[in-house]
Amino acid sequence: MITIASLIVFLAFYTLYYTSKRAALSYDLGFEKWMKNNPKQTKITGLLLLATAYAMWLITQSLCCGTLMFFIQLMTIGSLIIILTPLKKVNIKILLAVLIIAALLEFYYH
Questions:
Q1: Is residue 70 a contact partner of residue 54, using CB atoms and an 8 Å limit?
Q2: CA 57, CA 106: separation in Å to the nearest integer?
Q3: Do residues 16 and 43 touch, judged by C-beta distance below 8 A?
Q4: Residue 32's Cα: distance from chain center in Å?
Q5: What does the alpha-carbon distance between residue 72 and residue 61 come to, in Å, rounded to a whole number?
Q6: CA 16 to chain centre
Q7: What DSSP letter does each residue of 6-22 carry, written as one string?
Q8: Which residues are within 8 A (CB) of 19 and not within 5 positions of it... i.e. 6 or more apart?
Q9: Residue 63: burial class (beta carbons within 10 Å; 0-12, 13-18, 19+)
Q10: How far apart (Å, rounded) are the C-alpha atoms in residues 12 and 48?
Q11: Nearest Cα to 91, choosing from 105, 101, 81, 106?
Q12: Which has the closest alpha carbon to 35: 8, 53, 17, 10?
């Protein structure tokens, strides 16, 4: 559940990052062009994804712990996206590898 919430936070921040006018954007994937052409729908989608991830953190943790972990995760993932996206280090293969490793670790330790 935490891995899924992490993926949703990543997708939410990534969609909100693509609505920025200052960001150095690349269009490697097809949906990135759609996000740039439809900024209003992209912002709404990003905010809904953030709310969903926060709700998932609240379900898995208590109010204070879930809120703290959500904001720590949001800052960490946000920093990584801002640093690594202009360098074109964020792609689907690396994202899937990190997601699979995180899911395996979550299942192993839970």
A1: yes
A2: 15
A3: yes
A4: 14
A5: 14
A6: 9
A7: HHHHHHHHHHHHTT-SS
A8: 35, 39, 42, 43, 46
A9: exposed
A10: 8
A11: 81
A12: 17
Summarised one tens digit per residue, pLDDT across range 43-100 is 999 999 999 999 999 999 989 999 999 999 999 999 999 898 888 887 888 888 999 9
Query: What single-letter amino acid sits at 91?
Result: N
On whether the CB atoms of residues 103 and 3 are closer than 8 A, the answer is: yes
As given in the structure block, the two tokens for residue 65 are: 């712990």
DSSP string, 40-99: HHHHHHHHHHHHHHHHHHHHHS-HHHHHHHHHHHHHHHHHHHHHHTTTT---HHHHHHHH
- The DSSP letter of residue 110 is -
C-alpha–C-alpha distance, residues 60 and 50, integer Å: 15
Q: Letter for the amino acid at 71? A: F
The pTM score is: 0.86
Confidence of residue 101 (pLDDT cuts 50, 70, 90): very high
